Amino acid sequence: MHPACCARAAYRALLVALAASAGAAWAATVQVDVRDGAGKPVEGAVVFLESAEAQRAARPLPGIEMAQEHKRFVPGVLAVTTGTEVHFPNHDAVRHHVYSFSPAKKFELKLYSGTPANPVRFEMPGVVVLGCNIHDQMVAWILVVDTPYFAHSGPAGRVLLDGVPAGAYRLRTWHPGLPVGAAALAQPLSVGPAPASAAVVLTGLTP
Ligand SMILES: [Cu+2]
Q1: What is the CATH topology of the domain spanning 28-58+148-207?
Q2: What are the tens digits of pLDDT across the range 145-161?
Q3: How far is the CA of 132 from the centre of ligand 1 (A)?
Q4: What is the pLDDT of residue 111?
Q5: Which pTM value belongs to this model?
Q6: What separation in Å is there between the alpha carbon of 142 and the centre of ligand 1?
Q7: Cα 24 vs. chain centroid, distance in angstroms?
Q8: Average pLDDT for 177-196
Q9: CATH for 59-145 (3.40.50.2300, 2.40.50.690, 1.10.3720.10, 2.60.40.420)
Q10: How far is the CA of 127 from the centre of ligand 1 (A)?
Q11: Under 8 Å CB-to-CB from 55, ≥6 apart: which residues?
């Protein structure tokens, strides 16, 4: 290799290393505690952080599935980034007919067994409610978010988001128990280099 090329390569490597260390220094962990109106921890909420930078950083997720097992959707709530293609494998012996009438994504997978050849691509942020034409009790939700910073709350109602770059965000919280068609709750959140925390109160949840 020509010496000038070596120097350029070394310089590039240095820049990459600097960028990586800067990223580490300016990315924080955000802890969010989700409770209902009575102060009880809320499990299964999806918490996500929106900003223009987050939107630019969001990438479609690979290998995502919304399966059907024992006449149920698995998982019951799935969060994906915009542009993600979701596969709908049917693990049951009976056929399912999956559909959504939601504005964020209207589609149907007509009566099928096995895995449909084409995944369904979710382009628009929002809540997509899934049903099955054959089994009325089957319901699931796909929450499409325009950010890489999202997670589900655990049994203690707690969410930990790692590697969040410093900045001003809209902290949003959604739960399938919110009234049908309700938008995710929104509150401002400022993230600095140090760990941040926030509390969210979700009222009007259906048990
Ligand atoms: Cu079905």
Answers
A1: Immunoglobulin-like (2.60.40)
A2: 999 999 999 999 999 99
A3: 5
A4: 96
A5: 0.86
A6: 17
A7: 22
A8: 92
A9: 2.60.40.420
A10: 20
A11: 146, 147
